[in-house]
Amino acid sequence: MDETFDIYATVNGLIQVSNPVRRQILTHLSSSDLSLTEISNITGKAQSTLSVHLERMAGEALVTFRDDPADSRRKIFSLSSKLMARSRDVNEEGIELYRKTLGSVTEQDCNFFKVLLRAMIVGAEASGLCIGATMRQIGKNIGSVLSKNIRSTKVEDIISELQEFYEKHDIGEVCVYTFMPLTIIVRDNYEITSCAAESISMFSQGLFVTALQDITKKRYRIAASECFGASNNYSKFVIEQII
């Protein structure tokens, strides 16, 4: 495609960011708050150039800033928006699978809403919009809601209840590959394109990490992840505690 872009959610609505410098700044700020000097060192761009970009990004509510408590002359920038989607190349294989998935709604035992959800994800990804960040945020929101009904703080019990939730709602089959490190495998019942598999996996990653964090009051992160299988319907991810 001629122009790649990211879509961020701000308090003022969705903002499309295509400028490569601004995309780079936002990516780095998603990991940690940074000063202008630190952003300059990371990106290799002049501070004068970055100041122009950061001023506009602050005006669009993409970033915010505060005074450095150690030096009031220095500003610390942080992300005040959420990445929702990214552009990608059109995938013809995915478009064919999208049509095939929609065609299955006429089958007698079809779970209409599940098929529709899969079709929407595959269709978006195949058409050139990677919605993994959105799927992860949806997973986080659901994980937060589920955590309110789980009483045990033992990791094994939390995972067991999440397994039951997945089974009850026919989301997928959850298997604990190992507990040390905590490695989860989710098998989806549908054929998925490689480009959509990652986004579907990010839903589960967001759900499991958020549920664990909310219940145990400890911090977790995804240390590694992969999608595999002939139909791209297996998702494997490693969850580790942040010390």
Descriptive report:
This protein has 243 residues and is an alpha+beta fold. 46% of the residues lie in helices and 27% in strands. It contains 8 helices and 11 strands. The chain has helices at 20-29, 36-43, 47-59, 92-103, 112-127, 132-147, 155-168, 194-216, and strands at residues 6-10, 13-17, 34-35, 63-68, 71-79, 82-87, 129-130, 173-179, 182-187, 220-228, 234-241. A 4-stranded antiparallel sheet has the order 2-1-6-7. Strands 8-9-11-10 form a 4-stranded antiparallel sheet, covered by helices on one side. Strands 3-5-4 form a 3-stranded antiparallel sheet. Helix 5 (112-127) packs across helix 8, helix 6 (132-147) runs parallel beside helix 8 and helix 7 (155-168) crosses helix 8.
What's the layout of helices and strands?
Elements: E1 6-10, E2 13-17, H1 20-29, E3 34-35, H2 36-43, H3 47-59, E4 63-68, E5 71-79, E6 82-87, H4 92-103, H5 112-127, E7 129-130, H6 132-147, H7 155-168, E8 173-179, E9 182-187, H8 194-216, E10 220-228, E11 234-241
Antiparallel strand pairs: 1-2, 1-6, 3-5, 4-5, 6-7, 8-9, 9-11, 10-11
